[in-house]
Write a structure and sequence with these properties.
Length: 57
């Protein structure tokens, strides 16, 4: 068992990652879901009262 641990310790550890570069985001609404026997169903939606002209495009 000692030699197995030594082999593992000498291996390089690599983790895959993804980096996304996105423009600034503005949240204008939230949609709430409820789990039913048929699957997820939209329960309620809440939207911002004041949305900038840039977000309306």
């Amino acid at each position: 068992m000692e030699s197995l641990k030594a082999k593992i310790n000498k291996k390089e550890v690599v983790e895959a990652v993804t980096v996304l570069d996105t423009p600034p985001m503005v949240i204008i609404g939230v949609l709430g879901y409820i789990e039913t026997p048929q699957g997820l169903q939209a329960m309620t939606a809440i939207f911002s009262e004041h949305i900038s002209d840039e977000a309306r495009r």
